[in-house]
Specification:
This protein is an all-alpha fold and about 270 residues long. Helices cover about 80% and strands about 0% of the residues. Helix 4 runs antiparallel to helix 9. The chain is globular and about 70 Å long. It starts with a helix and ends with a helix.
């Protein structure tokens, strides 16, 4: 009985149930990150070196690809905000959308594999005889990542305290004033979440660019993939680390903006 009681006490601890997740994160998240750092700061002989970063800086092609990838990610994120915010606002507004199931129409594409959706986009462009290139790339990016912008904004607007909107209306604020002074500031946490969910995968993707441009346009993710496939693990790890640092910095700015928004309230 004592042994059984000890087992039950052990299983009743929260730390016990967290152990499998800790092991999973250690093997599939922490260990790969450590290996990336080790490979990035070593040469082919396994010695500590900064040659991989020097190679990146001294190669105009790699730097230009990196800058171009950031540009594509910014354009994609901007277009997703431009299209996603009105859609999320309409879906969350009971006066404009009385059927809650309509939101599922924007979520359904997320259930299909991104490669399948991209291949369907390629077939669509081929059917209407539109050449593949930069325009097709941006279209495919927006099409694939737009739901990731709509859903967090929609979720934030749904949980918004609507009494604040009613208070602004009672004080005589115009609908446009209510929207820009109340709704938009309160929805900024959802917007920032959507930006991160679109910007981060866009800057690192490679399959969409390869399919929608016939591999004529390279993004930074494509450069990393090519180096790793060619056995240049150290240089590929350095490029991956550079990309992760940029994404980490953007995440810090996002967290600080969201925190200041939550603390500052409506401005």
């Amino acid at each position: 009985m004592k042994i059984l009681r000890n087992i039950l006490n052990y299983l009743s601890r929260r730390s016990t149930w967290a152990l499998p997740y800790a092991i999973f994160l250690g093997i599939f998240v922490a260990l790969p990150m450590i290996l990336i750092v080790i490979f990035a700061f070593t040469n082919n002989q396994g010695e500590f070196s900064l040659i991989n970063f020097e190679k990146f800086i001294t190669q105009p092609e790699a730097v230009n690809t990196f800058v171009y990838s950031i540009g594509i990610a910014l354009v994609t994120t901007f277009l997703c905000i431009l299209l996603g915010y009105p859609a999320a606002y309409i879906l969350s507004n009971k006066n404009l959308n009385r059927s809650q199931t309509t939101a599922m129409l924007f979520i359904l594409p997320m259930w299909i594999n991104i490669l399948v959706r991209t291949l369907a986009t390629v077939a669509l462009f081929d059917f209407i005889h539109i050449p593949l290139g930069e325009g097709a790339l941006i279209f495919g990016m927006v099409y694939n990542f737009l739901p990731f912008m709509i859903y967090p904004i929609y979720n934030t607007l749904q949980k918004m305290d609507h009494s604040l909107i009613e208070a602004a209306e009672d004080l005589g604020a115009k609908p446009s004033t209510v929207f820009w002074k109340v709704t938009v500031p309160l929805s900024m946490p959802g917007v920032m979440s959507g930006i991160m969910m679109v910007f981060m995968p866009t800057i690192s993707t490679f399959a969409i660019a390869e399919l929608l441009t016939m591999n004529n346009i390279k993004l930074f993710g494509t450069t990393i993939q090519e180096n790793i496939n060619n056995g240049m693990w150290n240089y590929g790890a350095a490029l991956s680390l550079i990309m992760l640092v940029i994404i980490g910095i953007s995440s810090l700015f996002s967290d600080s903006d969201e925190q200041s928004q939550n603390e500052g309230g409506i401005i």
